[in-house]
Write a structure and sequence with these properties.
Elements: E1 4-6, E2 24-27, E3 40-47, H1 53-66, E4 71-75, E5 83-86, E6 89-92, H2 99-116, E7 120-124, H3 140-150, E8 153-155
Parallel strand pairs: 1-2, 2-3, 3-4, 4-7, 7-8
Antiparallel strand pairs: 5-6
Helix pairs in contact: 1-2, 2-3
Amino acid sequence: MILTLPVSHLINSNNFREVPGYKALEYKKEQPFLGFSGPCLFHSGNGVIDHDFIDYFDAILPYLTAHNFSHFSFDIGPAAENVKTEDYYYVAESEVLPYEEIIQIAAKRIDYVKARFDGIVALENLNYFPTSAYAHVCDPDFISQVILDNDVYMILD
């Protein structure tokens, strides 16, 4: 376990050293890099099944590489390639994909990331909400299969 401090509008270059006990910094967007000598992680809110995940990853990769991020993580899901966000949860705008198709898409895209990013790749679970966008992807057996089959780390939300 790595105690991680998220860099945000609240935690920034003016105050991040005042917070005790953290061992790593977590970034969620491209922003000025803080002068921290420990590991830096990048978490994307984009899900591996999002229709534009590969384009997003290709666009963020130069930033990840330039700043030597040790970890890159992203969401395990959603269950549809096109979703919108309503009140902090996903709503499917395209068909919900079958379990096995999600497994196959995830594997292909995880392989793509692992072939290009030199650090640790991790997936974060999605919190469940009662919409079709969460079908399959919050099931513990599904999560376990994706993590183990693709030899990646897991981040608990």
